[in-house]
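Deliverable D4.2, example record:
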Amino acid sequence: MKSKLLLVLFLLCIAPILSAQTYQVSSPDGAITIKVDIENGIKYSVLKKGKIIINPSSIGINTSEFSEKIFEEYSRSSQTQNIQVLRPQWGISARIPNNYVCMTIRTLHNVSIEFRAYNNGVAWRFVSDLSDDIIVYNEQVEFVIPEESTIYYPEARSYSTSFEPTYKPIKIEDINSKSFGLTPLMFKTNAGNVVVISESDLFEYPGMFIQKDKKNIIKGVFPKYPKRESQEILGRLRLVKWPHLSRMVVRSTEDYIAKTSGKRTFPWRVIMIADSDREILDNTLVYQLADYPQYDFSWVQPGKVVWDWYHNCNLQGVDFKSGINTHTYKYMIDFASSNGIEYINIDDGWSKLWNLKRVNSKLNLDEVISYAKERNVGVFLWAMWNTLDKDLIANLDRFQQMGIAGLKVDFFDRCDQRMVDFVNQLAEECAKRKLLLNLHGIYKPTGISRTFPNVLNIEGVLGLEYNKFSNRCTPEHNLTIPFIRNIVGPMDYTPGAMRYHFPSEFKKSWSNPHAMSTRAQQLAMYVVYHGGVQMLADSPTFYEHDEVTLEFLSKVPVIWDESIPIIGEMGKVIVMARRKGSVWYVAGMAGESNQLVSFSLYFLGDRQYQLTLLTNGETPDDILKDIMPVSKYNTFTHEIIGAGGFVMILE
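Output generated by the structure prediction step:
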């Protein structure tokens, strides 16, 4: 009798263990492993070569039809391996290996979770196959990071933000738990791993913010669905002309984050993993996880853009008054046409903010567009999203009939589901009309440029424009964003400043902006940073007086066949090599202090090459040019001055 009682007690003790379900999947090379435990919820953990990347962290989703508890009722697992190569229409490489092992945990209720393990990261998403629409009340996303990790925390004040952060290193215990953070988020472990958290394939769902929970837990948080929104009062009363005072803001919200189809895949939660700063530069998981394009995008042509707004249409030494007028834009078109620049941008001021049919009386827009077409130059027009949205289809039809190349759309400043739905609708409707898009004042890329390759660039970054009104665009910042923001997708930093102030002497100026980085570093940005359109931010009349700079800007590509990160130490130094056809461009940038770089030219072919070196001259506004023969057996050694840079063209 006593032995039977002991047996019953033993079985009762082990019952919870027996009911728990544990699954795991490893990357193709075996280095990265995801472990998933299902008991009283779902917890995952991530390891690389036995080192903790993510400690056991809870995930779940609560909807009107199911919650994470559904996985405890009955689940089964299957694994598949995928080996393929993606061939982007444009980007940093003509081919991207897309190899992973996928584990799917299913229930009997047409709900599952997909986990993917790549050699350079992991991702997971929920999948539902339900016949009715569902309401998502919340999604639980945790990242329990290793203790003593350093976080590069992109802080935001609220869900309403311009998505233009700085990335400052901080210990998790020092993060204010009431503050919001943006994704992508980077942290570095004491074991030396570099980890970036973001998301991909964002449709019919809000974008993910982050927030410190407790101790070493970072959690995903999501803006609720808007119930009521209205234009800010100064804009409604037409008392101001400034776009940022005319935004559409959320006044009240529903009690849920999304209302969506029950037959869908949810956004991927992405964890990119590297052993060094340099290695993270090679990560393209956000692009790989996005949905493939479903339209013909063969008409899409990336290129460079002559920009008007940064320098206030300030043309030097011309025989007319420059400004938002026909003469100014014809001059910019002539400049673009003469120098192989594909586009010009006509920014804020060409029309009334709230009425795109009321064109500035000093600008004959039809004449300018016709003039540009005759010279094989495309025209981008700027608009606020909420002005477009007043009659989206009619506005886009009109732009198509006018013959413009594309739109620069601005001041989204949100990523609730209503906004995400509008962005995706805008991309699709523009695709139908063969209109390109450059999106500003918007959340980070989530793979949209794979799904809609007509989305050529996305801001979501503190860029060069900040020199007009802030001192935050520092050399250290310039050397941080390639490692965090730019690895999740194209980034419209808008390089090309021709004027320089030492950081210690910097003064912001709206109409006469100077950069804190030398002219050579500005040129290097066209290679280090990537996006499907790259602005020439400063006045054409400045470029015309620098033959070396203008020759480089005329020829440098914006899309690449191959990219190799050579040197990378975030905030301090970067060297990137990119190839277009048979020509290599190698560019380096330094932060606030001098950096000595030395590297092999092993990536060159067997032939001899001519190296054209552009680097800092005697003054920060000078470019020194040198030409020499080299081969793959040579080692290049160069000292980059603080806030400086160099470009090598190898032909």
